Amino acid sequence: MTRNQDPSDLLARENDVFEQSFSLSKAADLAPPTTNLTIHSTWDEVLIRLFPGSSPITNINELTTLLVGFLAFKTKQQFPEGEAWVEKAWEGNFEGYDAFRDSIRVQLQGLGLIDVRQAGHGGEAWVLTPKGKIRCALVVGHRRTEAHSD
User: pTM, whole model, 2 decimals?
Assistant: First the structure.
């Protein structure tokens, strides 16, 4: 890193791919489709899954629902036959979930895309920063198809 370089430049971003491994356990007496799952995603995909309408995540239950939904989606992509298990799964069925959630928070904060604020009863809220809102718009918004002079 050079002297004047922004440390966040060293972080993976946008379309950089990351992977995370989980051990899966029974959900409502249903065996998981596999005992070990490795998901692959980009940071943009995570950002859009968590903030589909750029709305803040206001409590831990909402965050958990969104992240487990993301993991369920990734599980079904790899193991379509595991849909019954996925429908019953919760964060406790993904060993490593807490570390996954924390790494996402640190990454998105480090990139300046979210602020984490205290919420009621010791919880936390994840809120897009102006930079995060622009990134979401760039990912899901329609881009110009040809050069325009304005």
Answer: 0.83
